[in-house]
TrEMBL record, chain A:
Places the protein is found: Cytoplasmic vesicle, Clathrin-coated vesicle membrane
Residues covered by the MHD domain: 173-426
Gene Ontology terms: biological process: intracellular protein transport; vesicle-mediated transport
Leader sequence segment: none
Record's protein name: MHD domain-containing protein
Keyword annotations: Cytoplasmic vesicle, Membrane, Protein transport, Transport
UniProtKB/TrEMBL annotation, chain B:
UniProt xrefs under PANTHER family: ADAPTOR COMPLEX SUBUNIT BETA FAMILY MEMBER (PTHR11134)
Domain Clathrin/coatomer adaptor adaptin-like N-terminal: 1-486
Localization terms from the record: Endomembrane system
Species lineage: Eukaryota, Fungi, Dikarya, Ascomycota, Saccharomycotina
Identification of the protein by name: AP complex subunit beta
Lipoprotein as UniProt keyword: no
Role summary: Adaptins are components of the adaptor complexes which link clathrin to receptors in coated vesicles. Clathrin-associated protein complexes are believed to interact with the cytoplasmic tails of membrane proteins, leading to their selection and concentration.
Pfam families tied to this protein: Adaptin_N
Biased composition regions of type Low complexity, renumbered to the chain: 580-589
Principal localisation: membrane
Amino acid sequence: MASSIYFCDSKGKSLLSRDYKGDIPTSAIEKFPFLLVEAEEDQANATPIIQFNGINYLYIQHDNLYLLALTKSNNNVAQIFLFLHKIINVLTDYFKELEEESIRDNFVIIYELLDEMMDFGYPQITEIKMLKEYITQKSYQLERRSKKNQALGPPSAITNAVSWRSEGIMYTKNEAFLDVVESVNMLINPQGKVLRSEILGKIKVKSHLSGMPDLRLGLNDKIINAENNKGVEMEDVKFHQCVRLSKFENEKIITFIPPDGEFELMSYRLATSLKPLIFVDCKIEKHDKSRVVINTRIKAQIKKKSTANNVEILIPIPEDADTPKFKYSHGSVKWLPEKSLVVWKLKQFQGGKEYSMYAELGLPSVTIEDPQFQLKRPIQAKFQIPYFTTSGIQVRYLKINEPKLQYQSYPWVRYITQSGDDYTIRLK
Amino acid sequence: MEGHDMINVYPQVIEMFNTDDLEAKRMCYYFIGTYALSKPDLTLSTLPIIINDLNTGSPQVVALALKNITSIPIREFFKESIRPIRKSLKSENISVRKAAIFTIARLWERDPKMVNDEGLMATLYDLIEDKSTNIVAAALTVLLDIQDKSSDLKLSFNKGQAVYLADLLGNADDWDQLTILNSLMNFTPQTHDESYTLIDKVISLLHHENSSVVLNTFKLMLYLLNYASEIEEYIIRKMTSSLTSLLSKPDEIRFLVLRNVILLILSKPKVFHFDVSLFFCAFDDPIFVKDTKLEIIYLLANESNLSIVLQELAEYSIDVDVQMSKKAVRAIGNLAVKLEAASKTCVDTLLDLASNDIYYVNQEIVIVFKNIFRRYNQFDYALSKIISHADKIEEPDSRSALIWIIGHFARKIPKAESLLADLVSGFGEDPLDVQLCSLTSVVKLFIQKPEEGQDVVLEILKKATEEVDNPDVRERGFFYWRLLSAQAKFPGTAKDIVDGEVPLISNENEQLDPIILEELELNIGSLASVYLKPVGQVFRLSKRKLLPQSPAKSNGFSNIVGSLHSTSSSFAEARPRADTINSNNTSTSESGISDQRRVDEFDVPAIQVNPIKKQSNLSRRVTTSKSSLSRKLSIRNVFH
């Protein structure tokens, strides 16, 4: 339970606040800018949770804004952070962009939303779709409609068992799109050994279905057989709240009534030792005070039929390097001095192929930089491989059943594997 | 809207109050709530309007009025709230009923007696059996909230109630699930079977997308497992992976999960097994995440994963971030002290790092070597290598450490006297800690090598007693002076006192107190689990939680059935133990006085765990150095 919620600017000064409990004096927020300055000075203690004078400040950042909850009691931390993120999602959905300006312009509706989303410090209705049904942004323009809505109050769905879907949704063409997206994270040491690798998978659904459809998703036995240690072990699966969890637990069947529109049905994590999908071998030699020479070789270690798209290899170079010269047979190479990077881009990279690139950059003869102070930044690789999942997971079927309407429906599935945020190769 | 003169428009706001427009009304309520106490008489005049609002047919207006009537801290408002609460509880509209339930909680904060006298507590209990899950959850939320603050309310569910509540989980939304999970912590299984029944009902929630639901399910299961006679291994595996899969969530959630992983490593090292490579840092992790991961890596290190751990730590110690780098070096040094079998490898890694000649790395290396030399005798070959960097050691803590090393091992170091003389040449300008350390070291040198040390000891004692203003330094100077003068009368005394046996850095187990751990386990995912401190210490008003007694309470955690990790026994041996190193506490360790902790037992935070800094005084950081007394009293943690 949060005592109060604050929106603060980049300096930590309060822009808007909502007090739910009245047990924390307003002077508490005035300390926040100082706490931020202190955190700035001492990065290791710049945790998102600060305790000061018996008051706990839990905050998240969104662009130039701080969103924070204050509390005095021993709280459920995840609940508060998730709620703060939820506020950002909701407000971004309402105002397109959430920034100082849009907060000042829309404070009335923000109060209204904060009133509905939390009561006495406990989260209430946080589903965007539900909120939008009765809190409309341009109510002054649509006066009549908003009056009508006021009389109606929160929509019936809030009281339904299926709180995430309203009744009476209609589509002329009933379709469901599934996207299976796997992000591969990998940490590779200078010798090419994989230190850590994991697959973060997601199944995203875009549902354009009428009525109250009941869906059943069939996957190949990668998940189902997790207990038998057969094949790849799916370490952990998390489901959207619409999935009947006990059904999955007992029968390994994924059934659900989907929310309307786009949502993430499930996510999973697989810790498994993988071979690098895009192998990068990079040697960077610094010739004393004159130039730096980069030799890079990359290889697509995927099936011959597959192709990696939008491949980018980001190679760190010294900050004061200049006058680049490149030699390469494929793609394009760019020097980004503001980021101290050389970026090698390949639109397409077919499985089994191997390319190399040579770059030479000049270094100033006089360098202010302390020679001992070497920037330790790794090489990063980015890529996308369509029609392919690293884990081998496959959608066998998606059965759609709407008991009353009995319509014809069309499920579509796409697969893609891509680099995660952390596909890095360390340099010597 | 920030202006202070807003109060002057109060009368106009009251005029506005009767509007039909909900938005305008909402703002009026907000205004009145803010300025209620500044103009009590005006505020009182709004009461009829609010009562009128409560009688309208619009659910939203009624809910709004309910939420506000008890927010205004004036007695008349409380009294007038009772009837509308009763009426609204019977409303057909769920949101009005929920608002009424939360209004009871607000009223309780203002006047608990009124809530009791009016029988509203009993009403809340009745609502637990309501048809609507929303209402059940709201009633539970309020009861739990009151339980936290009230001295006499103690919820306790029997098996039937617990099962009834658990069965509601399937139809509840995530926030309601959270409440129900939390309320189930008030159920004490009386038999092992009761515990298994409940576990079966909640285990599937470990797959929930909401991290908070996952953490609370974890907490509940860990609690229930205390009442199980044996635990199937797959349950533990499932719990472990449900936690680690949260490591791909936003930074704040990851931080929370990482802190709770530390808790589990400390409290149930034999039960939960975490793969150390999960906690390797990504280069763009925020510092606070890296920092926490580093701690976990240190705690998880044992003989079997030593080589990858050391490689990883060595990688961090040449990180761009200076603090991270220093902490990594500190971790390697602490590992050397913690795991005897690993000490040689650690020492070699450190020497290798030192040969890179990176300024800030070497400052830290000297500090960790002080403890390594103190703990082990076999690393004399490292001594000369460390000494060879002496001219580049500049930071106060590092210089103290180096001075201590030279003074303590003067016998083994050729030309120790000239080295030390160089190091203490700026004695007058040195910071206090370095001065104190220098004093002791020159005396040690003199005791070990009277001929060679004579000049420098005289010079420093003279400066300490004549030129330095600080009473600590001066007094110590005089003390040593007299001690050395009395040597003829009491031969050997000076040696015993200054250069006697140094207490061994022990591997004494400094686990958190089991009771504190038990309490923290019941608070997984809470703020206390982030601070890793006893709840009562951080939240003075909150109640202590302990495992309730029951015939079913047993030691199921030692009885895990199924294919156990083969490494479990070695893991247990290599269980993280913090060592009594007060690496920064130079003044005490030199004089050989072992550091007795006199702090109240329950006031001791997680010693080996990096405590989140408790910020009690913003100006504290301005003061440059602590007095040695405050230093003795403060317990330094392993990384700092």
